[in-house]
């Protein structure tokens, strides 16, 4: 591959090749090599989690959110997925010459509200302005730092056979909300992004339930791609039940019309939690008692990598009793959704 394709930012196999062939090859170190959503850092007086992410969503404003709140929520959530309490954020802006300052004001105000709601502070930042045509209005990069709440930290490499697989709510809302706004699809007008901070859910799981093996937010590539990543990191298989996965009726109907699979659509306010079977019911009670977790469900079980399953596989038990392999997406169903 000599030129960059949109699929390289999709979260699927093309993204993984880009990360492995370019970034991991040049930046390789033991912390980065774990390939989790945030980095576990140890200092003499504490344990930190750190993550960074860039946001290029188009349009800038969509039902349920905008690029500003999305940048806060996305990085807060990535830090949280390491079982950490997010504390501080930095932000950097790439701004196109000619951008309406009212748009920038709206984005900054949204970021401030989202940060206060999540209980984090934006403590540093940077701004660059590039000539017209050199970026699409506005790009944001945020970095988050937080305090890990328990050891060992949740990691994609810690799923074990027999573990329960939980999700905190319905799949596919964000991806379809952005698509509907971008392409002015009136039949998707009632769908809103699920963009939300998940640090409250994570802290409750860590402190009230404990022994959380894996936490991950299924953003680009959706539930199917994220479970493939986890299964590959842990060398296990995942068996999930189609009928157990919550999907809002409007999202299911919109996907049917457009030929999209909601299991591969991005989410920005949902998490996957994998933990011992004995703790699954307690975790569900905690999730369902808190904002953003009311629709939590147990969707499957981690399987040993032995016949009929293979390491790294994700298998869907369908509503009619058959089984279907959910492979990792090669590229994006929808580009630029975060």
Overall body shape: globular
Radius of gyration: 19 Å
Fraction of residues in helix:
25-40%
Structural class: alpha+beta
* Total number of helices: 9
Order of helices and strands: HHEEEEHEHEEEHHEHEHEHEEE
CATH architecture of the largest domain: Alpha-Beta Complex
Domain tally:
2
Low-confidence stretches: none
Q: What would the average pLDDT be, to the nearest integer?
A: 92
Q: Strand arrangement, largest sheet? A: 9-11-8-12-10-13-14
Annotated CATH homologous superfamily of the largest domain: PurM-like C-terminal domain
- Main sheet specs: 7 strands, mixed
The termini sit apart by 24 Å
Strand proportion, as a percent range, falls in 15-25%
Protein described:
There is one protein chain. This protein has 338 residues and is of the alpha+beta class. The protein has two domains: 6-148, PurM-like, N-terminal domain (60s Ribosomal Protein L30, Chain: A, 2-Layer Sandwich); 164-325, Alpha-Beta Complex (Phosphoribosyl-aminoimidazole Synthetase, Chain A, domain 2). The strands form three sheets. A seven-stranded mixed sheet has the order 9-11-8-12-10-13-14. Strands 1-2-7-5-6 form a five-stranded mixed sheet. Strand 13 (314-317) and strand 14 (323-325) form a beta hairpin. The chain has helices at 13-27, 30-33, 67-80, 101-118, 173-182, 199-209, 222-234, 249-258, 280-288, and strands spanning 39-43, 46-55, 61-62, 65-66, 84-96, 121-130, 138-148, 164-167, 214-216, 237-241, 272-275, 297-303, 314-317, 323-325.
